[in-house]
Amino acid sequence: MEDLWAELRDAHPELAAVREAAQEPVYLVGGAVRDLLLGQPRADVDLVVEGDAAGLAARLGGAELEHERFGTAKVTVAGHEIDLASARTESYPEPGALPVVTPAESVEDDLARRDFTINAMAIPLTGEARLIDPYGGRDDLRHGLLRILHPGSFEDDPTRAIRAARYAARHGFTLEPETDTLLRRADLATVSADRRRAELERLAAEPTGRVGLGLLAGWGVIDLRAGGVELMRSVEDLLKAPHWAELVAREQALIAAALGPQGAEEVLASMWAPRPGEGVELAERRDPVELILARAMGASWLDQYLTTWRNIELEIDGDDLIAAGVEQGPAIGHGLRAARNKKLEGEVRGRDEELAAALAAALRD
Ligand code: ATP
Question: Which residues of the chain have pLDDT under 50?
Fold first, then answer.
């Protein structure tokens, strides 16, 4: 145990200031304990106070962000971000609902609300060096097992199934048999779409996100669309290439690849070598995620759109058309689009030709 403390001191020297400022027992909890035991100390730490977290935050120089309902605060100590929370219990009024939060006396009560044994351990920062491990998290960690704390866990909060996929994919952990059985019954439909999406995004954002989404599908918690596995793979490959990574967030693209939507991207993918003007008109109205999926489905013309077509701009603008006598209104847009298409297709060059082409189209309206 002394070793663990030494590691903790090395990994998080900023915690010395917390120890000094603490007037009530304070504990390192959750992922920070897990990662310390794994020998992978991390940047951010979560602390639980048996008492007033806001008071401790104030003594540490003030909180940047406070959540009164949950008694939580964020502070920066010596350049390190620390999350502080008062010990609390949670109860679920109905499956998938947000929990009702009540202050708790002890850190053990706080650990009881957590998702997996490996995340339900604590190390006191004050007093004697010890690991508080009421559910055998350390052993489970040694064996690479994800185990829930009680049989109703996934019913209370089905997003824990998504969290399981995140840890399983990240660390190569497996599900303990009873957890496995219960997880397969998790019903994400009882959770709000926002919470479901947020947890899916955290999963997909990880370097092992594709594996995690595959695990979730294998457990029957999400339905992958037909071809979803291959599509996720192609999307990942594209994200490594220039352009796409700037255009699309990895998590959005992977989730869309796994779950849909399908309509627009299929239309784009079914186009075989459109002319540049046509291609730009199609592509520029689309969400980047639709584009990356269409590309993953074979629309290779999108490479030209990305690298060349979309960068082509006219030398003229709407004011030039107005100055030339076109009335304000849709004719301006039509004219400019027609000129741009001709420019894309190499039919006009330079300002005068652009203007002539735009006027011809605008005046036809
Ligand atoms: P990461 O390593 O990805 O940062 P983490 O383990 O720190 O993950 P967080 O989502 O930051 O996880 O949550 C911190 C801790 O809060 C977890 O370790 C877990 O103990 C607890 N927790 C978070 N979400 C839930 C949940 N839905 N149900 C139960 N406990 C949760």
Answer: none
